[in-house]
């Protein structure tokens, strides 16, 4: 009887945990989600997001180094590709707090509320890299993000 009770409790915990995971995976991380978080949670999220970007830099560099060692990638092409990749992810000395502030400002515009955080981060990074919000590159991206967010 005791084994059955333990098995039932274990099963209930597994089902409950699975349901909670599936619910969190359904969460759309857009401006509405962002605006509902406290500042500390935003900092944690962006810190984790940017750690993922930094990690991907290392993974890509490692993979390309392997191709270079095997003669499948020239030194010149390796440098061109990796430098281009870094162009997309370079935020200089910008702090996580500054990124949070920029995202808050971005989501202050109600037209941006349905844009997912990943898309908003593209806008923020371009802005950090010196493009103004009126720049055609940002305006085109913003239009695409808004159109896809509907």
What's this model, at a glance?
This protein is an all-alpha fold. It has helices spanning 2-26, 31-35, 39-69, 75-89, 96-107, 117-128, 136-149. The protein has one domain (28-149).
Commentary on this structure:
- The protein has seven helices and no strands.
- With 150 residues, it is mainly α.
- The protein has helices at residues 2-26, 31-35, 39-69, 75-89, 96-107, 117-128, 136-149.
- Helix 3 runs antiparallel to helix 4 and helix 6 runs antiparallel to helix 7 (136-149).
- The protein has one domain.
- The termini are far apart.
Q: What does the overall shape look like?
A: globular
Measured by DSSP, the beta-strand proportion falls in under 5%
Low-confidence stretches: 4-8
Taking all Cα atoms into account, the compactness measure Rg is 21 Å
Q: Please count the beta strands (DSSP E, at least 2 residues each).
A: 0
Main sheet, how many strands, which sense, barrel?
Answer: none
* Tally of helical segments: 7
Please, how many domains?
1
